[in-house]
Structure formats: structure tokens, C-alpha cells
Amino acid sequence: MAYKQLKLWFDEELAKMLADKIQPLHPDFNKRQFIQEVKKGVISLELKDRVELIADLLQQYISKDFESSWNLLEQILGEENEKETGMFTEGYWIMPMAKFVEKYGLEDFDISMKAIEEITKRNTGEYTIRPFIEKYPKRTMKKMLRWSKNKNKHVRRLATEGCRPKLPWASKLQIFIDDPSPILPILENLKDDNSKYVQKSVANNLNDILKNNYPVAIDILKEWTNQNSPPPRRWIIKHALRNQLKQKNPEALEIIKQLTSF
After folding, report:
1. 205 burial class (0-12, 13-18, 19+ CB within 10 angstroms)?
2. How far apart are the C-alpha atoms of 92 and 115, rounded to whole Å?
3. What DSSP string describes 121-182?
4. I want to staple 148 with a disulfide (CB 3.0 to 4.6 A). Which of 8, 120, 159, 178 is the partner?
5. Per-residue pLDDT tens for 79-102?
6. Does residue 1 register a pLDDT over 50?
7. Which residues, in sequence order, are CB contacts of 245 under 8 Å at separation 6+?
8. Is the pTM value of this prediction over 0.85?
């Protein structure tokens, strides 16, 4: 199969896919015009802008009322993703729907939280959640703490990936660069998670914290390092310290030495 640049997946063909799913549930949906506007609008746009354009058109062609629109979109999400895969390998076509929630659901917290939870079971809500953290920090982090105990690995991953202080492709969360303490109970809940997908996210979150709040993160990693540390936690510790180990940080080297001695 020939390689297709990622942004080119968000095109007329994707618009047709969405329209075919929406129209049976919303007979007034102008399928032809929606597809034409996507086709015309994405030509000069890069990936993020293509995704946002489609989200804007969904809002324009379905309903101005967020709750009504989401009730419809939720019905086309399809089966949950059982694999441990990222946003560009499974359910990529859901990305405009995630952007739709991020952009138009900010005033509807409860509906949006349910929407994000369902989205992330199929694709990811790690970018969608960040404006909610900024607008409703305590309320959103309380929700994410509950998510960290969810039976679904994608939801548990969202609990830590969504609040990473320096998530790639996303604006940084200055609130957690200034004070990462709200993140720590989530990491504690996930330190022994059996899902490699979740483990990697916990490690990456700690790696982020090490960059701006080194004492906080290194103390956590020291505390986690003991003879009772199970294999998942050992992997998280090593992966979180990867950059520190490259720099031959003495504290990181000592943690690994202790870990391998048990």
C-alpha cells in the first residue's frame, strides 16, 4: 500500500464517511454540501487545521446546540478499540469529533466529560481534555482521578496523558509546570498498571515533571524503588529516567542500581 501523508486522510473521503454515518440519524443533514465544503476547504490546510475545519462544519451542519449534536455524534462512534494503539492507527476519523467537543463543549462540562470518555475508548481525548483542565482545574482533575481507576485501559491512560505538563503537539499546562501536585495521586494510582500503553504514559508524565520540578519527580521515583516494586513499576521508573540516564545523572544511576539489586 502506498504511503499517504497523515493530513491527507482528512479530506473529501473522510467527509463522505462521516456524512454516510450521520445522515440516517439526521435526515436534514446536507450531505452533499458538507462534503463539498470539506473538499474545498482542506486544500491548503495542514493537519490540525483540517481537523478543526471538519469540526466546525459538523457544528454548522448538525446543530448549534452542543448537547443535541453530541447525542447524534455519539451514536456513530462505533465499537471500542481493544488494542493498545495510538490516535493515528485506530479511529483516526474520530479526531474531528474530539475537536468538536474541545471547541464547542467547553460550557457543557458534564456532557463533555462523558463525550471525552467515550471518544478516548476509540481514539484519544488527550488534547480535548486540556482546555477543560485550564478552565475547570479542580473539577476536571477530580474526574481524571476517577478515570485513573477505570477498567478501560484507554480511559486510565487518558487520566495521565491528558494532564502531562508538556504533551507533544499541545500547548503546555502552565498550571502543572508551576505546581504538579494535582497530578501525583493519578500517577500513584497507575504506578503498577499492567497495560504497557498506560505505563508509557505514566513514565512520560514523570519525564515531563522532571524537566521543571526535578525534586518532586525524583523523590517519587526513589519512593517507588524498593524490593516490592513489581515489573510494571520497574519499567515505568526506567523509562521515566531515560533522559536523566543519558545525562549520567548520579541520582538516576543510583535508582537504577538499587532497582537491579533487589
Report:
1. buried
2. 16
3. TTS--TTTTHHHHHHSHHHHHHHHHHHTT-SSHHHHHHHHHTT-TT-TTS---HHHHH--GG
4. 159
5. 999 998 766 777 899 999 999 999
6. no
7. 238, 252, 253, 256
8. yes
